[in-house]
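Sample entry (344 residues):
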Amino acid sequence: MSIMLKELLSQPEVLHDCLAQNRKAVKEIASVIKSGEISHIVTMARGTSYNATVFFKAAMELATGIPVVTYMPSLTTVYKGGLNYKNSILFAISQGGMSTDTLEVVRSAKAKGCKIVGVTNNKDSLLAKESDFILYLAAGEEKSVAATKTFAAQICVLQMVVSEVSGNASILKDIENAGAKLNKVKELTDAIDSAAKTVKDSEHFVVLSRGLTLALADELALKLKECCYKYTISYSSSEFMHGPLALIDEKSSVILIAPNGECKNDFINIATRLRLLNARIVAFSDIKDVLDISDVKIKLPACSKWDAAFVYSLAFQMFAEHMSVRLGLNPDSPRNLKKITITR
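Predicted structure, serialized as C-alpha coordinates:
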Protein backbone atom coordinates (compact mmCIF):
# COMPACT_ATOMS: atom_id res chain seq x y z
CA MET A 1 0.00 0.00 0.00
CA SER A 2 1.36 3.42 -0.94
CA ILE A 3 1.78 6.11 1.70
CA MET A 4 -0.66 8.23 -0.28
CA LEU A 5 -3.35 5.55 -0.07
CA LYS A 6 -2.75 5.00 3.62
CA GLU A 7 -3.03 8.73 4.30
CA LEU A 8 -6.15 9.34 2.23
CA LEU A 9 -7.92 6.38 3.83
CA SER A 10 -7.39 7.97 7.26
CA GLN A 11 -9.84 10.79 6.51
CA PRO A 12 -12.69 9.66 8.82
CA GLU A 13 -10.28 9.91 11.77
CA VAL A 14 -8.83 13.18 10.47
CA LEU A 15 -12.29 14.79 10.33
CA HIS A 16 -13.02 13.65 13.89
CA ASP A 17 -9.79 15.17 15.21
CA CYS A 18 -10.17 18.33 13.12
CA LEU A 19 -13.64 18.97 14.51
CA ALA A 20 -12.46 18.43 18.10
CA GLN A 21 -9.46 20.75 17.75
CA ASN A 22 -11.15 23.78 16.19
CA ARG A 23 -14.53 24.44 17.80
CA LYS A 24 -13.26 27.28 20.02
CA ALA A 25 -11.19 28.96 17.29
CA VAL A 26 -14.09 28.76 14.85
CA LYS A 27 -16.38 30.57 17.28
CA GLU A 28 -13.78 33.30 17.80
CA ILE A 29 -13.25 33.80 14.06
CA ALA A 30 -16.98 33.80 13.36
CA SER A 31 -17.48 36.41 16.08
CA VAL A 32 -15.05 38.74 14.31
CA ILE A 33 -16.71 38.18 10.93
CA LYS A 34 -20.17 38.81 12.39
CA SER A 35 -19.06 41.87 14.34
CA GLY A 36 -20.24 44.24 11.64
CA GLU A 37 -16.71 45.40 10.90
CA ILE A 38 -16.07 42.79 8.18
CA SER A 39 -17.61 43.30 4.75
CA HIS A 40 -15.60 40.74 2.83
CA ILE A 41 -13.14 37.89 3.23
CA VAL A 42 -9.79 37.55 1.43
CA THR A 43 -8.08 34.20 0.81
CA MET A 44 -4.52 33.39 -0.18
CA ALA A 45 -3.14 29.92 -0.98
CA ARG A 46 -1.30 27.80 -3.55
CA GLY A 47 -1.85 24.35 -5.08
CA THR A 48 -4.28 22.05 -3.30
CA SER A 49 -4.79 24.72 -0.63
CA TYR A 50 -5.90 27.11 -3.37
CA ASN A 51 -8.56 24.60 -4.43
CA ALA A 52 -9.79 24.55 -0.85
CA THR A 53 -10.24 28.34 -1.07
CA VAL A 54 -12.34 27.89 -4.23
CA PHE A 55 -14.65 25.63 -2.23
CA PHE A 56 -14.68 28.08 0.69
CA LYS A 57 -15.67 30.94 -1.59
CA ALA A 58 -18.66 29.02 -2.98
CA ALA A 59 -19.77 27.75 0.43
CA MET A 60 -19.42 31.06 2.29
CA GLU A 61 -21.10 33.11 -0.41
CA LEU A 62 -23.94 30.60 -0.73
CA ALA A 63 -24.56 30.32 3.01
CA THR A 64 -23.96 33.92 4.11
CA GLY A 65 -23.80 36.25 1.11
CA ILE A 66 -20.41 37.59 2.30
CA PRO A 67 -18.10 38.15 -0.69
CA VAL A 68 -14.89 36.08 -0.70
CA VAL A 69 -12.04 37.29 -2.91
CA THR A 70 -8.84 35.53 -3.93
CA TYR A 71 -5.61 37.47 -3.50
CA MET A 72 -2.89 37.22 -6.13
CA PRO A 73 0.38 36.91 -4.14
CA SER A 74 2.52 38.48 -6.87
CA LEU A 75 0.81 41.82 -6.21
CA THR A 76 2.82 41.82 -2.98
CA THR A 77 5.81 39.58 -3.68
CA VAL A 78 6.68 40.88 -7.16
CA TYR A 79 4.94 44.22 -7.67
CA LYS A 80 5.24 45.31 -4.02
CA GLY A 81 1.62 46.43 -3.99
CA GLY A 82 -1.33 45.20 -2.00
CA LEU A 83 -4.97 45.55 -1.14
CA ASN A 84 -6.88 48.04 0.89
CA TYR A 85 -7.68 45.63 3.73
CA LYS A 86 -10.24 47.88 5.39
CA ASN A 87 -13.18 45.81 6.70
CA SER A 88 -11.58 42.53 5.64
CA ILE A 89 -10.12 39.42 7.22
CA LEU A 90 -7.46 37.31 5.49
CA PHE A 91 -7.52 33.50 5.47
CA ALA A 92 -3.99 32.33 4.63
CA ILE A 93 -3.93 28.60 3.90
CA SER A 94 -0.69 26.62 3.84
CA GLN A 95 -0.35 22.99 4.90
CA GLY A 96 3.19 23.40 6.19
CA GLY A 97 2.84 27.07 7.07
CA MET A 98 6.28 27.92 5.71
CA SER A 99 5.61 29.18 2.17
CA THR A 100 7.55 32.38 1.64
CA ASP A 101 4.94 34.04 -0.58
CA THR A 102 2.17 33.28 1.94
CA LEU A 103 4.22 34.76 4.76
CA GLU A 104 5.08 37.89 2.79
CA VAL A 105 1.42 38.52 2.02
CA VAL A 106 0.45 37.89 5.65
CA ARG A 107 3.04 40.32 6.97
CA SER A 108 2.00 42.97 4.47
CA ALA A 109 -1.66 42.57 5.38
CA LYS A 110 -0.91 42.68 9.14
CA ALA A 111 1.02 45.91 8.68
CA LYS A 112 -2.17 47.40 7.23
CA GLY A 113 -4.24 46.30 10.21
CA CYS A 114 -5.84 43.20 8.70
CA LYS A 115 -6.76 40.27 10.98
CA ILE A 116 -5.15 36.99 9.89
CA VAL A 117 -6.58 33.47 10.06
CA GLY A 118 -3.82 30.91 9.51
CA VAL A 119 -5.00 27.52 8.27
CA THR A 120 -2.15 25.05 8.68
CA ASN A 121 -1.17 21.53 9.68
CA ASN A 122 1.85 22.84 11.60
CA LYS A 123 1.15 24.60 14.91
CA ASP A 124 4.80 25.64 15.17
CA SER A 125 5.02 27.13 11.69
CA LEU A 126 5.85 30.74 10.90
CA LEU A 127 2.32 31.16 9.56
CA ALA A 128 0.87 30.05 12.89
CA LYS A 129 3.10 32.51 14.74
CA GLU A 130 2.12 35.39 12.45
CA SER A 131 -1.63 34.71 12.65
CA ASP A 132 -4.24 36.20 14.96
CA PHE A 133 -6.27 32.98 14.80
CA ILE A 134 -5.22 29.44 13.90
CA LEU A 135 -7.34 26.75 12.31
CA TYR A 136 -5.29 23.65 13.00
CA LEU A 137 -5.78 20.82 10.51
CA ALA A 138 -4.82 18.11 13.04
CA ALA A 139 -4.19 15.67 10.21
CA GLY A 140 -0.88 14.30 11.44
CA GLU A 141 2.26 14.42 9.30
CA GLU A 142 1.49 14.06 5.61
CA LYS A 143 4.46 12.24 4.05
CA SER A 144 3.16 11.74 0.53
CA VAL A 145 3.89 14.68 -1.76
CA ALA A 146 0.30 14.72 -3.04
CA ALA A 147 -1.97 16.35 -0.46
CA THR A 148 -5.02 14.27 0.41
CA LYS A 149 -5.99 14.14 4.06
CA THR A 150 -4.94 17.77 4.55
CA PHE A 151 -7.32 18.81 1.76
CA ALA A 152 -10.17 17.11 3.61
CA ALA A 153 -9.10 18.84 6.83
CA GLN A 154 -9.03 22.23 5.10
CA ILE A 155 -12.55 21.69 3.75
CA CYS A 156 -13.59 20.65 7.26
CA VAL A 157 -12.32 23.72 9.14
CA LEU A 158 -13.48 26.14 6.45
CA GLN A 159 -16.97 24.63 6.44
CA MET A 160 -17.02 24.88 10.22
CA VAL A 161 -16.48 28.62 9.84
CA VAL A 162 -19.26 28.79 7.24
CA SER A 163 -21.61 26.95 9.60
CA GLU A 164 -20.86 29.23 12.54
CA VAL A 165 -21.05 32.48 10.56
CA SER A 166 -24.29 31.50 8.81
CA GLY A 167 -25.91 30.02 11.91
CA ASN A 168 -26.76 26.95 9.85
CA ALA A 169 -26.15 24.08 12.27
CA SER A 170 -27.00 21.48 9.61
CA ILE A 171 -23.65 22.21 7.92
CA LEU A 172 -21.76 21.21 11.05
CA LYS A 173 -24.00 18.19 11.54
CA ASP A 174 -23.26 17.01 7.99
CA ILE A 175 -19.52 17.27 8.66
CA GLU A 176 -19.90 15.31 11.90
CA ASN A 177 -21.82 12.56 10.06
CA ALA A 178 -19.50 12.41 7.04
CA GLY A 179 -17.28 9.71 8.52
CA ALA A 180 -19.84 6.94 7.96
CA LYS A 181 -20.16 7.85 4.28
CA LEU A 182 -16.38 7.98 3.89
CA ASN A 183 -16.21 4.43 5.22
CA LYS A 184 -18.69 3.41 2.51
CA VAL A 185 -16.45 5.00 -0.12
CA LYS A 186 -13.50 2.99 1.21
CA GLU A 187 -15.52 -0.15 0.44
CA LEU A 188 -15.57 0.83 -3.27
CA THR A 189 -11.88 0.06 -3.76
CA ASP A 190 -12.47 -2.63 -6.40
CA ALA A 191 -14.85 -0.48 -8.45
CA ILE A 192 -12.52 2.52 -8.29
CA ASP A 193 -9.50 0.40 -9.22
CA SER A 194 -11.42 -1.09 -12.16
CA ALA A 195 -12.32 2.41 -13.37
CA ALA A 196 -8.71 3.55 -13.09
CA LYS A 197 -7.50 0.49 -14.98
CA THR A 198 -10.05 1.07 -17.76
CA VAL A 199 -9.05 4.66 -18.48
CA LYS A 200 -5.37 4.74 -17.47
CA ASP A 201 -4.15 4.85 -21.06
CA SER A 202 -6.15 7.95 -21.99
CA GLU A 203 -3.73 10.64 -23.06
CA HIS A 204 -5.66 13.50 -21.49
CA PHE A 205 -8.75 14.20 -19.43
CA VAL A 206 -11.33 16.91 -19.00
CA VAL A 207 -12.92 17.13 -15.54
CA LEU A 208 -16.31 18.82 -15.15
CA SER A 209 -18.46 19.78 -12.21
CA ARG A 210 -20.41 22.79 -10.98
CA GLY A 211 -21.40 24.74 -7.89
CA LEU A 212 -19.99 23.56 -4.56
CA THR A 213 -18.14 20.65 -6.19
CA LEU A 214 -16.41 22.74 -8.87
CA ALA A 215 -13.36 23.00 -6.60
CA LEU A 216 -13.23 19.20 -6.57
CA ALA A 217 -12.92 19.13 -10.36
CA ASP A 218 -9.92 21.45 -10.02
CA GLU A 219 -8.40 19.23 -7.35
CA LEU A 220 -8.92 15.99 -9.31
CA ALA A 221 -7.28 17.63 -12.34
CA LEU A 222 -4.30 18.50 -10.15
CA LYS A 223 -4.06 14.95 -8.77
CA LEU A 224 -4.08 13.41 -12.26
CA LYS A 225 -1.32 15.79 -13.33
CA GLU A 226 0.96 15.28 -10.36
CA CYS A 227 0.38 11.57 -9.66
CA CYS A 228 -0.36 10.17 -13.13
CA TYR A 229 1.34 12.72 -15.43
CA LYS A 230 -1.88 13.16 -17.39
CA TYR A 231 -2.60 16.46 -19.09
CA THR A 232 -5.90 17.37 -17.45
CA ILE A 233 -8.06 20.48 -17.51
CA SER A 234 -11.04 21.29 -15.33
CA TYR A 235 -14.08 23.44 -16.01
CA SER A 236 -17.47 24.34 -14.70
CA SER A 237 -19.88 22.22 -16.75
CA SER A 238 -21.72 25.41 -17.73
CA GLU A 239 -18.54 27.32 -18.63
CA PHE A 240 -17.43 24.34 -20.71
CA MET A 241 -20.27 24.98 -23.13
CA HIS A 242 -18.89 28.46 -23.92
CA GLY A 243 -16.06 27.36 -26.19
CA PRO A 244 -14.11 24.44 -24.68
CA LEU A 245 -16.79 22.00 -25.90
CA ALA A 246 -14.99 22.24 -29.26
CA LEU A 247 -12.25 20.06 -27.76
CA ILE A 248 -14.52 17.03 -27.57
CA ASP A 249 -14.44 14.17 -30.04
CA GLU A 250 -14.53 10.37 -29.90
CA LYS A 251 -11.00 10.30 -28.44
CA SER A 252 -11.91 12.43 -25.43
CA SER A 253 -12.19 11.15 -21.88
CA VAL A 254 -14.39 13.34 -19.69
CA ILE A 255 -14.76 12.87 -15.94
CA LEU A 256 -17.95 14.14 -14.32
CA ILE A 257 -18.12 14.91 -10.62
CA ALA A 258 -21.89 14.97 -10.40
CA PRO A 259 -23.62 14.68 -7.03
CA ASN A 260 -27.39 14.87 -6.87
CA GLY A 261 -28.77 18.24 -5.84
CA GLU A 262 -29.48 21.64 -7.34
CA CYS A 263 -27.18 20.97 -10.32
CA LYS A 264 -28.73 17.59 -11.19
CA ASN A 265 -30.35 18.67 -14.47
CA ASP A 266 -27.17 20.42 -15.59
CA PHE A 267 -25.17 17.24 -15.01
CA ILE A 268 -27.69 15.15 -16.94
CA ASN A 269 -27.68 17.65 -19.80
CA ILE A 270 -23.88 17.76 -20.13
CA ALA A 271 -23.65 13.97 -19.92
CA THR A 272 -26.24 13.68 -22.69
CA ARG A 273 -24.37 16.16 -24.85
CA LEU A 274 -21.08 14.33 -24.34
CA ARG A 275 -22.75 11.04 -25.23
CA LEU A 276 -23.94 12.53 -28.55
CA LEU A 277 -20.36 13.63 -29.24
CA ASN A 278 -19.08 10.07 -28.60
CA ALA A 279 -16.79 11.08 -25.74
CA ARG A 280 -15.86 8.48 -23.14
CA ILE A 281 -17.62 9.50 -19.93
CA VAL A 282 -16.32 8.61 -16.47
CA ALA A 283 -18.91 9.47 -13.81
CA PHE A 284 -18.53 9.91 -10.06
CA SER A 285 -22.20 10.29 -9.22
CA ASP A 286 -25.34 9.12 -7.46
CA ILE A 287 -27.62 10.37 -10.27
CA LYS A 288 -29.11 7.38 -12.09
CA ASP A 289 -29.50 9.17 -15.42
CA VAL A 290 -25.85 10.25 -15.39
CA LEU A 291 -24.62 6.79 -14.43
CA ASP A 292 -26.76 5.15 -17.13
CA ILE A 293 -25.27 7.40 -19.81
CA SER A 294 -21.66 6.93 -18.70
CA ASP A 295 -19.12 4.39 -19.97
CA VAL A 296 -17.26 4.10 -16.66
CA LYS A 297 -19.20 4.70 -13.48
CA ILE A 298 -18.49 4.95 -9.78
CA LYS A 299 -21.74 5.12 -7.84
CA LEU A 300 -21.24 7.06 -4.63
CA PRO A 301 -23.40 7.39 -1.52
CA ALA A 302 -26.14 10.02 -1.61
CA CYS A 303 -24.92 13.28 -0.09
CA SER A 304 -26.18 16.61 1.10
CA LYS A 305 -24.60 19.73 -0.36
CA TRP A 306 -22.34 20.01 2.70
CA ASP A 307 -20.81 16.53 2.93
CA ALA A 308 -20.40 15.86 -0.81
CA ALA A 309 -16.94 17.48 -0.82
CA PHE A 310 -15.61 14.83 1.56
CA VAL A 311 -17.24 11.86 -0.18
CA TYR A 312 -16.27 12.84 -3.71
CA SER A 313 -12.74 13.99 -2.89
CA LEU A 314 -11.96 10.68 -1.17
CA ALA A 315 -13.28 8.76 -4.17
CA PHE A 316 -11.25 10.65 -6.73
CA GLN A 317 -8.13 10.59 -4.57
CA MET A 318 -8.42 6.81 -4.53
CA PHE A 319 -8.96 6.90 -8.30
CA ALA A 320 -5.80 8.95 -8.90
CA GLU A 321 -3.72 6.75 -6.57
CA HIS A 322 -4.93 3.53 -8.22
CA MET A 323 -4.29 4.94 -11.69
CA SER A 324 -0.78 5.97 -10.69
CA VAL A 325 0.00 2.48 -9.44
CA ARG A 326 -1.59 0.89 -12.53
CA LEU A 327 0.71 3.04 -14.66
CA GLY A 328 3.74 1.75 -12.78
CA LEU A 329 4.39 5.12 -11.13
CA ASN A 330 5.10 6.07 -7.54
CA PRO A 331 2.23 8.23 -6.24
CA ASP A 332 4.17 9.08 -3.08
CA SER A 333 6.98 10.84 -4.90
CA PRO A 334 5.94 12.41 -8.23
CA ARG A 335 8.76 13.47 -10.49
CA ASN A 336 10.05 17.06 -10.23
CA LEU A 337 8.05 17.74 -7.05
CA LYS A 338 8.77 18.24 -3.35
CA LYS A 339 6.42 18.37 -0.38
CA ILE A 340 7.23 22.01 0.29
CA THR A 341 7.35 24.27 -2.76
CA ILE A 342 9.04 27.68 -2.51
CA THR A 343 7.53 30.32 -4.78
CA ARG A 344 7.02 34.05 -4.75
